[in-house]
Every structure is written in structure tokens, then in C-alpha cells.
Amino acid sequence: MEHVFPTYARFPFDLVKGEDVYLTDNHNKKYLDFTSGIGVCSFGYSNEIIQKNLEEQLGQVWHISNLYENQLQDDVAGMLCETDQLAFFCNSGTEANEAAFKLARKYTGKTAILAFNNGFHGRTYGSMSLTGNPDIQQGFAPLVPDVEFADYNDTKALGLIDSHLAAVILEVIQGEGGVYVADKQWLTDIQQACHDNGVLLIIDEVQTGIGRTGQKFAFQNFGLKPDIITLAKALGNGVPIGAMIGDKKLASAFGPGAHGTTFGGNKLAMAAAKGVLQQLTPAFLENIQDKADAVWQKLNSEIKILPSVTDVTGLGLMIGIHLNEQIDVNDVIVKLQSKGLLTLSAKHNTLRLLPPLIMDQAKLMEGLDIIKDSL
């Protein structure tokens, strides 16, 4: 590639066609996909309902800006939100977290935010400042001030939550950080400390939301009720979209002029999101849970025991296979590509798996067998 900044370490092939849960490259090699475009294309690459919604909207109008009423936005918000919540639409996960950051400060009148080491919330300045990864922040100082950090799953964090904070932001599963799942009691205690001290709880569902763990939102596995939720990725199945959901009480701080976006909530993105949410039914989520049960049985009985594997973590169809230090995860990814399987990495030498949620159990097992043989 000659005309693009070298911000990505790209693999040397171009994925030019997608069908169901398979991708084909420019050399006509076909791959079973265990990446979903980094947790995005949960409904695969040829979903009829999403395609139909997009085609119909393409024949009407693509973009109108947010100067006018948008019934499609309201319809999608109604599908996303509980009755005591409102939505704000944007274009990505980092934008959703920027909106949450601004709303928390404006509503509370306070500036301090508690985030967690090893977390990831985006690469724009506010979101990057909330990201507990020095490698991502390197070279961009000074960052947004008044962001404090604690260790994930550490009870010492509870002592840092007091009335000086505007909000606490966390992922219930740290995806980019290595697919580490939070302890349920720790999450419950974090939420209680927030409530006791008038601190907003923001849960970043950008990678974990929209069915990835077998629930609409991953925090539902832990019995939580955050004040603000951020999401993106799978909400549009490949059409750029982000959203922030917040309690209705927060609306007083987000009136006209408080925040905005030219493209956020555009009709094409809303058409795609509506197609996603139309299919995110209780039966669909139950099917994910059933498939995940079989996947985890195989992971624990056949892959976790391998000498090259130190642990397997995750929830639902969000999986991290932690490799020992003698094996480079990037070498494993290339080896799997040669065998026709696409996978991802995460921090701490982790092989990350985010297969499309529509993938049937037989194909999930096929992919795991390829991984087992390669490891």
C-alpha cells in the first residue's frame, strides 16, 4: 500500500469477498473467520435482513444530518434502551466513550474519572486518556487531566471511589487487554461504591455488547445496572456506528449544543443497526449460550491442557487463549492463516477468538480443531 499512513501492521493479503462466515482473499484463498472484523460482523458477511434494510434505505435517502427529526434513530434507540434510558448515536466506540466522558463531567460538575490498568477505551484524546495502556499513550502527552487508574479485579480500587469522582469507567471483560473477565463480586462492590458516593458507573460494551457473551450486554451476566453504557462494533455489523446509552436523569446535561456529530445516527447506519437488533432475539441469545457451552467444554478439555497454553479466559463467544512465552502469538496467527483460519491477538501474548455469532457449532468445532492441531 503506497498512499496510506503506515498506522497498521497489515497481513499481506486483501480480503475481497465475504459469504456467511467465510472470507476470500485476493489470491482466492478462503478462510473460516474467527475474528468478525474484530468483533463487528457478528451476523456474518451476507445477512439478508441487514442487506435488505440497507438496500431499501439506499433507495430513499442516505444522510440528512441531525438538524431534523429522524424516526429511524428513535426506532433503533427504542430497541436498544430500557424505558428509563436515552441514546446518543455516533460513529465508533471511541466516540461513544468521548460522549460518556463529557456527559459524566457535565452532569456531575466534577472532573475526576477512575479507569483501570490494562483497559482499552479508544484512541482519541479523551478515550486514550482513559485507556490503561502506556504503549498506546506514548508520544501523545499531555493527556486529558484528572484520570486516575487502579488495578482491575483489585479490591483496593474500592477505596479510591469517593465523592471527588465524576465516574468510574470499566469493561466487564477487558478485550484488547487479554480477554480478562472481572470478578462478579468485585463488579457488584464497584457499583455499590459508586451508588454510595454519587459517582456514575460507565460500562464500555464496545466489544462485549450485542450478544457476544450470550446476553444483549455483557454486564447483564453480572446483575449490574450502569448509569451509562457505550457500544459500537457489532451494532452495525460492519457499517460504522457507535452509541451511548444513559439514564434519562442525565438528559439535563446533554441538551442542544452540549455535544454533536455530523454523521452520527445517519440513516444507513440506523438501517443496519435496526437489522441487527431485529435478530437479537431471546431465542438467538439462547442459541449463542448453547453453542458457547459446547465451545468452552472443548476449550477446557482439549486446548487449556496443551503445554503451549497457560490459560483460557473469556465468556460466551469471546475467548482468549493465553500462550506461554516460548510461543509468539503472531506466529500462531500466521500459521492458522495458512490453514485457512483467521484469528486475532490481544495483549499478554493472547490468541483472541471472536467468531461470528451466527456460526454453527460444527464450524466452531472445526476452527478449534485447527487451533488445537496448530498449538
UniProtKB/TrEMBL annotation:
<feature type="binding site">
    <location>
        <position position="261"/>
    </location>
    <ligand>
        <name>N(2)-acetyl-L-ornithine</name>
    </ligand>
</feature>
<feature type="binding site">
    <location>
        <position position="123"/>
    </location>
    <ligand>
        <name>N(2)-acetyl-L-ornithine</name>
    </ligand>
</feature>
<feature type="binding site">
    <location>
        <position position="262"/>
    </location>
    <ligand>
        <name>pyridoxal 5'-phosphate</name>
    </ligand>
</feature>
<keyword id="KW-0028">Amino-acid biosynthesis</keyword>
<dbReference type="InterPro" id="IPR050103">
    <property type="entry name" value="Class-III_PLP-dep_AT"/>
</dbReference>
<feature type="modified residue" description="N6-(pyridoxal phosphate)lysine">
    <location>
        <position position="233"/>
    </location>
</feature>
<dbReference type="GO" id="GO:0042802">
    <property type="term" value="F:identical protein binding"/>
</dbReference>
<dbReference type="Pfam" id="PF00202">
    <property type="entry name" value="Aminotran_3"/>
</dbReference>
<feature type="binding site">
    <location>
        <begin position="93"/>
        <end position="94"/>
    </location>
    <ligand>
        <name>pyridoxal 5'-phosphate</name>
    </ligand>
</feature>
<feature type="binding site">
    <location>
        <begin position="204"/>
        <end position="207"/>
    </location>
    <ligand>
        <name>pyridoxal 5'-phosphate</name>
    </ligand>
</feature>
<dbReference type="InterPro" id="IPR005814">
    <property type="entry name" value="Aminotrans_3"/>
</dbReference>
<keyword id="KW-0963">Cytoplasm</keyword>
<dbReference type="GO" id="GO:0006526">
    <property type="term" value="P:L-arginine biosynthetic process"/>
</dbReference>
<dbReference type="GO" id="GO:0005737">
    <property type="term" value="C:cytoplasm"/>
</dbReference>
<dbReference type="GO" id="GO:0030170">
    <property type="term" value="F:pyridoxal phosphate binding"/>
</dbReference>
<comment type="subunit">
    <text>Homodimer.</text>
</comment>
<keyword id="KW-0055">Arginine biosynthesis</keyword>
<keyword id="KW-0808">Transferase</keyword>
<comment type="similarity">
    <text>Belongs to the class-III pyridoxal-phosphate-dependent aminotransferase family. ArgD subfamily.</text>
</comment>
<keyword id="KW-0663">Pyridoxal phosphate</keyword>
<feature type="binding site">
    <location>
        <position position="120"/>
    </location>
    <ligand>
        <name>pyridoxal 5'-phosphate</name>
    </ligand>
</feature>
<dbReference type="InterPro" id="IPR015422">
    <property type="entry name" value="PyrdxlP-dep_Trfase_small"/>
</dbReference>
<dbReference type="InterPro" id="IPR015421">
    <property type="entry name" value="PyrdxlP-dep_Trfase_major"/>
</dbReference>
<dbReference type="InterPro" id="IPR049704">
    <property type="entry name" value="Aminotrans_3_PPA_site"/>
</dbReference>
<keyword id="KW-0032">Aminotransferase</keyword>
<dbReference type="InterPro" id="IPR015424">
    <property type="entry name" value="PyrdxlP-dep_Trfase"/>
</dbReference>
<dbReference type="InterPro" id="IPR004636">
    <property type="entry name" value="AcOrn/SuccOrn_fam"/>
</dbReference>
<protein>
    <recommendedName>
        <fullName>Acetylornithine aminotransferase</fullName>
        <ecNumber>2.6.1.11</ecNumber>
    </recommendedName>
</protein>
<dbReference type="GO" id="GO:0003992">
    <property type="term" value="F:N2-acetyl-L-ornithine:2-oxoglutarate 5-aminotransferase activity"/>
</dbReference>
<comment type="pathway">
    <text>Amino-acid biosynthesis; L-arginine biosynthesis; N(2)-acetyl-L-ornithine from L-glutamate: step 4/4.</text>
</comment>
